[in-house]
Write a structure and sequence with these properties.
The chain has a 7-stranded mixed beta sheet with strand order 1-7-6-2-5-4-3. Helices cover 26% and strands 26% of the residues. It is built from 5 helices and 7 strands, in the order βαβαββαβαβαβ. The chain is an alpha/beta fold and 160 residues long. The longest helix has 14 residues.
């Protein structure tokens, strides 16, 4: 990751568009070989965040949840790294040895030349990357304060 993005932090975003804007900044800072783990409950905003990251990376294609296809690949429009968006929960549940799980997808991108975004990635990424950005999305705190809230708190740190 480029040095212009903080390696740790926590931010509260009131609406999904703010989450996407933060993701865009993160996407502009990511480099080939970076691995990002998105962790949070269903509806926390993992795909919304990935949409912002994709915009910042300037990749092709509409970003949607990878749940039904396990992984989606988005090519760079500007000669930067491709984006590989993975549903790690489904990948781990597929019965494939986790150490070879991403290789088994037969992606066109070499993962060392791409940015890998793994939703539900705990348990998988620790086995495929020595260093990764762990991003926790928390919607429960805001909803407990105000049930009509769309806010989420995003906490991130580099691990490994």
């Amino acid at each position: 990751m480029k040095p212009n993005f903080p390696t740790t932090g926590s931010e509260r975003f009131e609406i999904p568009e703010e989450t996407q804007a933060w993701g865009e900044s993160l996407g502009q800072a990511l480099e080939a070989g970076d691995v990002v783990i998105l962790d949070g409950p269903l509806g926390a905003g993992k795909t919304t965040l990935t949409q912002g990251i994709a915009r910042g990376m300037q990749v092709k294609g509409r970003v949607t949840s990878p749940t039904f296809v396990i992984a989606r690949e988005h090519r760079s429009l500007v000669g930067g790294p491709d984006l590989v968006h993975v549903d790690a929960y489904r990948l781990l549940d597929s019965g494939v040895d986790p150490s070879g799980a991403l290789d088994s997808l037969d992606l066109d991108s070499d993962l060392l030349d791409a940015v890998v975004i793994a939703e539900w990635g705990g348990g998988l990424v620790e086995q495929i990357a020595d260093r990764y950005l762990f991003v926790q999305l928390d919607r429960e705190t805001a909803v407990a304060e105000d049930p009509s809230s769309e806010a989420r708190i995003i906490t991130w740190e580099w691990r490994g």
